[in-house]
Design brief:
340 residues, 9 helices, disordered N terminus, Arc Repressor Mutant, subunit A, 2 domains, alpha/beta
Length: 340
Amino acid sequence: MAEKKVNSTEGDPWERVAARLGADLFLDLQPDPSTTARGRGAMRRRALADALRDAISDGRLPPGTMVPPYRSLAADLGLARGTVAAVYAELVAEGRLTARQGSGTRVAGGIHPQPASLAPPTVTLPTADHDFALGQPNPSLFPRSAWAASTRRALSGAADSVFAPSAPNGSVALRTELAAYLARARGVRTSPDCIVLTTSVSGSLDLLSRTVFERRAAVESHGLPFHREVIARRGVTTSPLPVDARGADVSRLADAGVDAVVLTPSHQYPFGVALAPDRRAEVVEWAARTDAVIVEDDYDGELRYDRDPVGALQGLAPDSVIHTGSVSKSLSPAVRIGWL
């Protein structure tokens, strides 16, 4: 008698099976045209049983994994329910699956250990009592409750378009909020259309190195190492700019032969100084006179302990200064939101 099939739902059956099982079985259920109906049914049963055995043995279906109800799997594969039920019963008899009333059918444990290549690492590394890493925010201060509540509020009323691909320069809604925040908190003069969202300041600098920098760029001689590394990686020559108690010595730019400079004017790393007011005016005048570009890394610009707020350099000359920053310090580097 020909095998009775159950109509499958729409979509790719292999994608559905992989989604239900959490693993791809790599099944080949296409029979030899010369095979009889009875032979085709037997072949499909063996193929499914062997595929499940392999997935259990090699760890793709680890112990405790619940397999789909046989009715669902039969529908997805276009097989008779009895075929899948028989395969499950066979694997239960072999001890590879366990079936309990009300709790479904699961992969048995203790008989088929996970291969060493897939096993979790067993080496335990020592942990320090205190984290002395430089330039890292305290993760315990992350506003978890407020973040979770805001996420729920935003997603519960979000339109379908929120989950679709956004514009190349990032979400319009986020750029709108960011433009307002930067104007309010940092004195940046910009608009949503002028903002490009990135994942970090490093990502912003990499983008600028590929699109804006031409031949040679100045960087602070004692500053954030990734400034020089990212720029050099894109084939742009870097020129060191000395730093003293008043920030970067921008008077050296006149003879440096550069068409761009990267500065941390609000909080220089590692000395912690802010660029002096007269030097701010000088570098802005240099950029306007030479048609050069100033890249302002607003490193720690939102944080202050012993001084009055220092506004962003971009507010003095929006046409010459490209402002870049991130939420790595104000929230967490794990959030991965930057801008320029």
